[in-house]
Write a structure and sequence with these properties.
It is built from five helices and five strands. With 131 residues, it is of the alpha/beta class. The chain has a five-stranded parallel β-sheet, sandwiched between helices. Helix 1 crosses helix 5. The chain is globular.
Length: 131
């Protein structure tokens, strides 16, 4: 499955990739990574339909992941599940506003992030097999 990770910070993208690894759970497929550093690159990748789960940094600049998530949910047909990385746990309400499917707060806990992504990978696989 293809996972997209968006952040303007290369270190954040690397931390996400390290936390999830090649397979976040034994019952999900191996991961292929697509890294994006700009909002237009994210929208273009999502629009092509090759992304299974998107992980968007809500703290990215100049365009945050929450705004991209909301735009994608409104504009992308069969938008993949989205995880938003929030600045703090109390920002979960903003992730809810963005229509993200999951939220994980900075600093990233690898176990929490891997569980969230694996759950969304399972959901996406189920969606693709029933459509």
């Amino acid at each position: 499955m293809t996972l997209l990770v968006y952040s303007d910070d290369v270190d954040t993208r690397e931390r996400v990739k390290l936390a999830i690894g090649r397979r976040p759970a034994a019952d999900v497929p191996r991961v292929d990574w697509l890294e994006c550093a700009t909002a237009p690159a994210v929208i273009s990748a999502l629009d092509k339909g090759d992304v299974d789960v998107a992980i968007l940094d809500g703290e990215a600049a100049p365009v945050g992941g929450m705004g991209i998530a909301r735009q994608a949910k409104d504009e992308i047909f069969r938008c993949p599940p989205i995880v938003v990385l929030t600045g703090r746990a109390a920002d979960a309400w903003l992730a809810n506003w963005s229509r993200a499917d999951a939220a994980v707060a900075h600093p990233l806990d690898p176990i929490v992030l891997a569980h969230a992504v694996a759950d969304l990978m399972r959901r996406r696989r189920a969606e693709l097999t029933t459509s």
